[in-house]
Design goal:
The protein is built from seven helices and eleven strands. The chain is α+β, with helices and mostly antiparallel strands and 226 residues long. The chain has a four-stranded antiparallel β-sheet with strand order 1-8-3-6.
Length: 226
């Protein structure tokens, strides 16, 4: 995945044809915008290395984060219908993305069944993630939201070949709170509670999951150990 600017799940045979579409790479410094709300939609972007956040800027100036993107993720798919970007995307760290021209990708997806299936799956996943996030914020307790976040991040990193139990949080506590619909103080308090309960070990941004089953138990309505 470091050699090719490709989304996860593409067959090796089709990968070569998609890789030909990538004629440009963009380097972003931490905090730099890839695109902003209202910018014309001309491409989708595959994260080659680093990480990104998707956000909306509310009328009062606050930022609402709606997603975090890791290597292999495609960014910008939510703009296909309106032909302009519906959100802003910024780098959480020094990041490189590959630019895939939108019209060429759509044309190629009509020729390659596996790409068409993957493209459809990714669009469906965008909708599913939105519904899941609304459900999480609307019905889960604060500790269940944080457990969900940690388990989801663990699974996504594992799929990419990284450790599922030890990782660095590239986002701040405040950014996690924005994503989960919680205040900074609540996020910090819950991390401390999870650590005291023996579910995780945390030092600044370095997290180690000690008890994966315990986190799942919190998600399923149980209580973390004190």
């Amino acid at each position: 995945m470091g050699q090719f600017c490709l989304p996860l799940g593409i067959s090796p045979e089709d990968a070569k044809r998609i890789d030909i579409l990538v004629k440009e790479r963009i380097r972003l410094e931490k905090g730099q915008a890839l695109f902003n709300i209202g910018d014309p939609f001309s491409a989708v972007y595959s994260v080659r290395f680093g990480s990104l956040k998707t956000l909306f800027v509310l009328p009062d100036g606050r930022q609402q984060i709606t997603g975090f993107h890791l290597p292999g993720d495609l960014v910008g798919l939510d703009s296909v219908v309106n032909q302009s970007h519906m959100s802003s995307v910024r780098a959480l760290e020094d990041t490189e993305v590959c630019v895939i021209p939108a019209m060429e990708l759509i044309t190629l997806s009509r020729e390659l069944p596996s790409l068409h299936i993957q493209f459809t799956r990714l669009l469906s996943q965008e909708i599913s993630n939105d519904h899941r996030k609304l459900l999480m914020i609307g019905s889960l307790r604060a500790e269940e939201r944080l457990a969900t976040f940690l388990l989801d991040l663990s699974e996504r990193l594992s799929i990419r070949g990284y450790s599922s139990t030890e990782f660095v949080l590239r986002m701040s506590r405040e950014e996690i709170g924005s994503y989960l619909g919680m205040k900074l103080e609540t996020v910090s308090r819950l991390f401390s509670r999870f650590a005291r309960a023996g579910l995780i070990r945390i030092q600044q941004k370095q997290v180690k999951i000690i008890d994966m089953d315990g986190l799942r138990q919190v998600l399923n309505g149980g209580s973390e150990r004190e």
